[in-house]
Specification:
Two copies of one chain form a homodimer. With about 375 residues, chain A is an alpha/beta fold. Chain A contains 14 helices and 13 strands. Chain B binds a DNA duplex (30 and 30 nucleotides) through helix 2 and helix 4.
Chain lengths: ~375, ~375
DNA sequence: TGCTTTTGTGTGTGCGAACACATTATATTT
DNA sequence: AAATATAATGTGTTCGCACACACAAAAGCA
């Protein structure tokens, strides 16, 4: 019978136990202390000895026992996260939950996480929080750089201080972060286009709705829009579908309503709406109020209000940006780099989850990733 | 500024380090040995003492240090997996990969995994492999019980031997497995219906295509079909759409082609096809050959051939059953139960991932879950 | 030469839990 | 009451690693 065997022993070296520092020391005719010094590049080792030890480490394919390491070294890794306060935008509950979850998994390895919150509508509050964060000299930083310009000097500072930082949610990959985590905004736009067009076989108008953001400072929204438009071009559909662009401000209801009703009146064949942010519920609510039920809406994120309109059919699909996962993986990337010395990918793109009424449950309260 | 602080110290007990057995022993006026006996229910502890210790464990919110545990106890956990050989059906590469991935994460905790392969088209080979598996007296078993009847006596045996077993892929939840892992077949069918109907606004006929399976022995396919039909009833669409059922056998090409062309000829308004297994590519290939391009197909699983037809547009959507994840979580459920003493959910439903050309990449080679 | 640095190397302890073993207290038998 | 069994509890070693420290040899310098 066919049989695979996964176990600690390699096939070649059949009955070898896992290689320990002791084993290396023995084979190299030195003490464990010396091996330790080589492993940690603490110096104070003769050249020839160092080479010999390194060779043997390679030969024996030594892999440190992470348990024992975490147990032995009482080192504490102090991570800091810098994210918007959920009280201003419930979206940010997700990342915070993800960060907390990652912390729970990693605290055994000596990880501590401080979360600094700022007001996503006030650049100053970002700066204040970031300065405070810096005062504590963390070993690694995770942040959502929604204030790009304001974040720049901090990038410089961390680079100078050799503090790895991970960015998420807002696609920025200059300034050598350790890693960027989030979705591919461009593909995200293409996917949204597919989902709308697939359900709207007849030629019609489609609205691209941006919300609340300073578009010039929000590169990811621009990318989403390009991806969205690209889909129609790539599939030779740009003659059949008219794409309208709108920027809305949900803060002032009356203005928002006026803007939206203008768009609807001016485009009688409007049948689909792509909301580039998590504010799809604003539009759904408006349409519901007006008893307009034949629109297809695609938006982002499983906010309670969005879920509500997904369930009653006003919203056709939500693309899950996995905010929880972003926080979770952000902390994990730092740990992988600092604690486990793993290579971490500069781009960590999370899946583009398509959520409908039918599969909603699996994305709502998953504690795992 | 707002600030959350995740660290080893609880807020109430500010400067407490993590609680160790020693701390409990101290507070309970006993030795660590006694605490240990209480923790592991090894007996030989006076009733009153046990109660006191348990109370203090609770009060102090003790959580064992998994590192130290894994280090200290050299215990080896021997898991066995019993799955079809991928050489008969490439689908099974997924579970095997997931099992291997889980092993890599868990080997630090002393986990070993033996994978026994059988021929999914020969019940005897299943029995042979299962017997061989039993001979090794594993601590836990993960299997896909695609031969339901043949698996029954083994369920009994494991139950009698107190060996936890986890089932996956084929929905079976009798016989008290530790856990079942897979998709909710019923919801899966509903989702497929949604994806087809959403893209086919006009009334038409839709084919439900089963493949290769002995339907009477494949409860999950029946459930998929019920869910699929339910969608149309629930949404009052059963007048507009005619649902046709077909059972195909891909082994005999000529027969299969005849069957399929019959269905197409007899239903000129056929526009959608729901393939309940991973064999959607068979139908896509046929249609492609006949230059029929206006059908919407929804099927399962990211097999290379399916991916091919997803990319060229013949298949609209694939629902990812996450075969890799099933193997991964299967092993993890065993570990959670046996090693980490966690409660494990009897039903572990994996998300219903909707895969299109646009978001395909994220589901193809994700090493994480 | 005697003395201080520097460099190379080995030893020992602690981390938290598991488990074997040693010891003490209590019950039972003779 | 002494002997013995048995239940209850305490002690010590182990796991693999990090890190502090001890110490020796070599090198620098007067």
């Amino acid at each position: 019978m066919f049989l695979y065997y996964f176990c600690a022993q390699t096939q070649s070296n059949m009955k070898d136990k896992t290689v320990r520092i002791k084993d290396i020391a023995l084979k190299a005719n030195v003490s464990t202390g010396t091996v330790d010094r080589v492993l940690h590049k603490r110096g104070r080792v003769a050249k020839d000895v160092e080479e010999r030890v390194l060779r043997i480490i390679n030969e024996l394919n030594y892999e440190p026992n992470l348990m024992a390491r975490a147990l032995g070294s009482q080192k504490v890794y102090r991570f800091a996260a810098l994210i918007p306060d959920a009280q201003f935008d419930v979206y940010w509950y997700g990342p915070k939950a993800g960060i907390e979850h990652a912390f729970k998994e990693l605290k055994q390895f000596g990880v501590e996480v401080k979360v600094y919150l700022f007001n996503p509508y006030e650049a100053d509050s970002f700066i204040t929080a970031a300065k405070q964060l810096n005062a504590t000299q963390p070993d690694g930083v995770l942040l959502s750089p929604i204030f790009y310009r304001e974040a720049l000097p901090f990038f410089e500072h961390w680079k100078a201080q050799n503090i790895p930082f991970v960015l998420f949610n807002t696609e920025i990959t200059d300034h050598q972060p350790l890693s960027y985590i989030g979705q591919d905004s461009y593909l995200s736009g293409m996917l949204a286009a597919k989902m709308l067009q697939y359900g709207l076989p007849e030629p019609c108008s489609i609205l691209i709705a941006h919300f609340d953001e300073d578009i010039s400072n929000a590169a990811h929204l621009v990318k989403k829009e390009s991806g969205f438009r690209k889909y129609f071009i790539q599939n030779q559909l740009h003659d059949s579908y008219k794409l309208i662009k709108g920027e809305f401000n949900s803060a002032k209801f009356s203005v928002f309503h006026q803007q939206l009703s203008d768009v609807i009146e001016n485009n009688p064949d409007l049948k689909g709406i792509y909301v580039t942010t998590s504010k799809a519920f604003e539009i759904a609510a408006y349409l519901k109020e007006r008893h307009i039920h034949d629109f297809k809406i695609v938006g982002y994120d499983l906010l309670p209000k969005n879920v509500h309109f997904l369930n009653n059919g006003m919203i056709s699909f939500l693309i899950n940006q996995n905010p929880k996962g972003q926080g979770y993986w952000g902390i994990h990337q730092l740990a992988n780099h600092l604690i486990f010395k793993k290579e971490v990918a500069v781009f960590k793109y999370l899946p583009l989850d398509i959520v409908t009424k039918e599969n909603l449950n699996y994305f709502l309260d998953k504690p795992e990733y």
